[in-house]
Write a structure and sequence with these properties.
This protein has a single domain, classed as Outer membrane efflux proteins (OEP) (Up-down Bundle), CATH 1.20.1600. Helix content is 70%, strand content 10%. The protein is built from 10 helices and 6 strands. The strands form 2 sheets. It has a 4-stranded antiparallel beta sheet, with no helix packed on it. A two-stranded parallel ribbon has the order 1-4. A hairpin with a 4-residue loop joins strand 5 and strand 6. Helix 1 packs antiparallel against helix 5, helix 3 crosses helix 5 and helix 7 packs across helix 9. The protein is elongated. The two termini are 50 Å apart.
C-alpha cells in the first residue's frame, strides 16, 4: 500500500513532534515549576514534621511525660500542713480562751527524689522515641506520596502525548477516508485507539489529582492550595547487604528503642518502690497557749510503720512491666528481622526488574521509535502497523515509569525498616 507523499510528511512531522514532547517532559515540568513556587522532597519532609496532624498528636504525649518530671523534681513530696485549734474553758471566776498552731511537712528520704527524676526522665526519653517512630512512618508516607505524584505526573504527560498523536491521526485519517484513500477498517481502528487514548488520559489526570491531594493531606496543607513539586525518581543501582541492614535496624529503629527504654524505666521504678517501703517521715512544730498558764512550744516526728503495706502491688506492677518489656524487645527484634528480610527481597526483585528496563528494554524502545518511523517512510510498514508499534512502545515506557516507582518504593521500605538513609532527600 502506497500513500501520498504529503501524508508521509504529515505523519513524520507528527512523530517528530511527539518524540520531542515525550523525551522532554522534565523540561516542560521545569518550565511550569518556574511559574509557581516548587518544593522538593526535603522541603516536603520538613513541612510534614511541622504541620502533620499525626505527628502533632504524638507530640502531645511529651507534655504528659514532662508534667511527671515536674512533679518528681519537687524538693518536698507534698505541701506543708497548717493546723490550728481554738477553744474556751470556764474557770470559777472567769472564762479563758486557749489556742494552738502547728505546721507539719513530709520529707523524702533514701534518695527518693533522685530516683523519681530518673524514672520520669526515662519516660520522657521513651515518649521521644515514640514520637520519632511516628515521624518515621509519616516520612515514609511522604516519600511514597511524593514519588507517586511524580510518577502520576509523568504518566499524565505521556498520556497527553499519546492523546495528541491520536488526535492528529484521527483528523488525518478522516480526511483520507473521505478522499477514499483508506478503508473503513482503518478508520475504525484509529477511532477505537483515539477513544482509548482519551479514556486513559482521563484516568491519568484523575489519578494525578488524587495523588496530589493525598500528599497535601500528609503535609497538612489545604486541598485547594497550589502545590508544585520538583524531583526525579531514583534509578541508580544500590549495593546493600542484609547484615548491614539488620545491624542498622537493631541500632536505630525508634520503636525498638522505645521498648528498651521502657524496660530501663521499669527497672528504675522497681528501685524506687523498694526505697518507698520505708515511709517518708513527717516533721511538725507547734505552739500552744492556755490562758493563765505558760506557752508551750514543741515538735513532733511521725512515721508510718510498714507492716501491711510494703508496696507489694507497686513492686509487682513494675516487675511485670519490666518482664513484659523484655518479651516485647525479643518479639520486636524478630519482627524487625522479618521486615528487613521481606524488604530486602522486595528490593532485590525491584532492582533486577529496573535493571532489565534500563539496560535492555528502554534503549531498544528509543531505537525502535526511530526505526518504526523510518520503516513507515520507506513503505515497509502499513499505517496500522506503524500506529500499533508507536502505541506499544509508548505503553512500554509507561510500564517502565511504574516499574521505576516500584523500585523507589522498595528503597523507601528499606530505609523505613532499617533506619538507614540510602539516598539523599534533596534530589
Amino acid at each position: 500500500m502506497i500513500y501520498p507523499v504529503h501524508h508521509i510528511k504529515y505523519v513524520t512531522v507528527v512523530t517528530l513532534i511527539t518524540s520531542i514532547l515525550f523525551f522532554s517532559p522534565n523540561i516542560l515540568m521545569a518550565e511550569e515549576g518556574r511559574e509557581t513556587n516548587s518544593v522538593n522532597l526535603e522541603e516536603c519532609i520538613k513541612a510534614a514534621i511541622e504541620n502533620n496532624l499525626q505527628i502533632a498528636a504524638a507530640r502531645k504525649g511529651l507534655g504528659t511525660a514532662e508534667a511527671d518530671r515536674i512533679k518528681a523534681s519537687f524538693l518536698l513530696p507534698s505541701n506543708p500542713k497548717l493546723n490550728s485549734r481554738v477553744g474556751s474553758r470556764n474557770a470559777p471566776a472567769s472564762r479563758h480562751t486557749d489556742y494552738m498552731f502547728s505546721l507539719s511537712q513530709e520529707l523524702q528520704v533514701y534518695g527518693q527524689r533522685g530516683k523519681r527524676i530518673k524514672v520520669s526522665n526515662k519516660k520522657i526519653e521513651r515518649v521521644e522515641f515514640e514520637i520519632a517512630d511516628v515521624e518515621r512512618t509519616v516520612i515514609a508516607k511522604i516519600k511514597t506520596g511524593f514519588y507517586e505524584v511524580l510518577t502520576a505526573r509523568e504518566i499524565l504527560a505521556l498520556r497527553e502525548n499519546v492523546n495528541s498523536i491520536f488526535e492528529r491521526l484521527w483528523d488525518a485519517t478522516r480526511e483520507r477516508y473521505n478522499a477514499g484513500a483508506i478503508a473503513a477498517l482503518e478508520l475504525n481502528s484509529i477511532k477505537i485507539g483515539y477513544g482509548q487514548a482519551r479514556q486513559q488520559l482521563l484516568v491519568a489526570n484523575n489519578n494525578y489529582k488524587n495523588r496530589l491531594l493525598s500528599l497535601k493531606l500528609l503535609l497538612g496543607k489545604p486541598g485547594d492550595e497550589v502545590l508544585n513539586i520538583e524531583g526525579k525518581l531514583y534509578s541508580e543501582k544500590l549495593l546493600i547487604s542484609m547484615e548491614d541492614l539488620l545491624t542498622s535496624a537493631y541500632g536505630k529503629r525508634p520503636d525498638l528503642k522505645a521498648i528498651e527504654i521502657e524496660k530501663e524505666r521499669a527497672s528504675q521504678e522497681i528501685s524506687l518502690r523498694k526505697v518507698e517501703i520505708i515511709p517518708n517521715p513527717s516533721v511538725s512544730g507547734f505552739f500552744s497557749r492556755e490562758e493563765g498558764d505558760d506557752d508551750i512550744v514543741g515538735g513532733q516526728l511521725t512515721i508510718a510503720i510498714p507492716i501491711w503495706d510494703r508496696k507489694q502491688p507497686e513492686l509487682k506492677r513494675a516487675r511485670t512491666t519490666r518482664d513484659k518489656a523484655d518479651i516485647n524487645i525479643k518479639y520486636k527484634q524478630l519482627e524487625i528481622q522479618k521486615e528487613v528480610e521481606t524488604a530486602f527481597q522486595t528490593f532485590m526483585a525491584a532492582k533486577e526488574g529496573i535493571a532489565i528496563y534500563t539496560d535492555e528494554i528502554i534503549p531498544q524502545v528509543d531505537e525502535s521509535l526511530s526505526l518504526n518511523e523510518i520503516s513507515y517512510q520507506e513503505g515497509n510498514t502499513s499505517f496500522i502497523e506503524f500506529l500499533t508499534m508507536q502505541k506499544n512502545l509508548l505503553e512500554t515506557r509507561a510500564t517502565y515509569i511504574n516499574t521505576l516507582l516500584d523500585y523507589n518504593k522498595a528503597i523507601i521500605n528499606i530505609e523505613t525498616v532499617s533506619g538507614e538513609n540510602l539516598i539523599s532527600d534533596d534530589r
